[in-house]
Amino acid sequence: MANRWLALVCFTTVGSALLACNIPVFRYALERWNPDACEMILFHSGPLQTDEEIQLRKLLPSRIQGLSHSETVVASQSLGALSFVDLQTANDDQKKLWNGLSKTSSSDLPYLLVRGSVGSTNQFPLWKGPLSELEQASLFRSPARVEMSRRLLAGDAVVWLLVTGLDQEKNEAIRQRLDLELPRLAKQIQLPEGIGLPGSELFSEVPLLVQYSYLEIDRNDGKESFLIDLFSSIRPLEVSKGEPLVIPVFGRGRALEVIPGSELNPQLMTDLTLFLSGACSCQVKEQNPGFDLLIDCDWKDELFPEGDEPPPARSIGQGAGRGQSAAPQLLDIPRGR
Question: pTM, whole model, 2 decimals?
């Protein structure tokens, strides 16, 4: 992913106010945007050993498609899909992918590659390593992700993750900024009018709150190594300087951006919060900024235990939808000062 300030993508509404979607972005994402499924590729040589198959089934959530016990997983509830590549019979593209992982020792097999996506085409690595290291990696579950999911399902509009840096004074400065700005934003932000009217219905029982919180992750916490490594790979220069990172998360665990602590300021926080709390003028998930975190949470069952879920969200292939133009307008958020 490019290390630049995100561009918020909005569609120009051309219909009446009643046709527009007045649901806040954070709530529309929570109710309608399924997390992007990851792609998992297991490289091996010859048939897997029985203990390797047992370990794979033990460590991967049951909602991974391709596992022997989860072949009937509903796509909308799937965390991802697992495929197997036997290097003894691999095709040229598979061998090229394996060679690109820079592995030279067959003792590393079986070897797992996990890839995510931004939009419909851009893939990026989430994790890679021998199967023997999978348990330590905590790909889909960690204390921070459990707590973050709990807060989002309880009504928090945005959970701001703080990954601490090396400088304790900088860490404390970011804590103070979050402590000051989040209550201010909660008082200042006004939700769109018209929520509940046709086209802007709410479907879950989650309270609609103007509520923001932050959750701190110690950069040396081994239980959070997956998140720390992921965010660090997006901001390597700032991490090498020991900076803290701040990540606003909304919806079903969608990270809006990874922000270096030195660039976090009140205006930037206001701009991002206004976007996430404003009317969802672009209902096509792939045209919105951000990327989904790997979280082992069955959002559908948590949000709609009685099955009263909203219609499927639109995708790029389905067009912009009624009352919206087909061409997006890019609105750049100013770089932090």
Answer: 0.84
Cβ atoms of residues 324 and 14 within 8 Å: yes
d(CA 61, CA 59): 7
DSSP string for residues in 115-147: EEEETTTEEEEEEEEEGGGHHHH-SS--HHHHH
Neighbours of 24 (CB within 10 A): 24
Residue 110, preceding peptide bond in cis (omega within 30° of 0): yes
The residue extents of the domains of the chain are 7-35+142-332, 38-118
Strand order from edge to edge, sheet including 64-65 = 64-65, 80-86, 38-44, 111-118, 122-130
Whole-angstrom CA distances from 43 to 91, 100, 123, 266, 317 are 12, 13, 18, 47, 32
The CA–CA distances, whole Å, from 15 to 11, 322, 323 equal 12, 8, 4
Q: pLDDT digits over 186-237, tens only?
A: 999 999 999 988 888 999 999 999 999 999 999 999 999 999 999 999 999 9
**DSSP H or E run through 217:** strand 212-217
Give dist(CA 242, CA 171) in Å, integer: 10
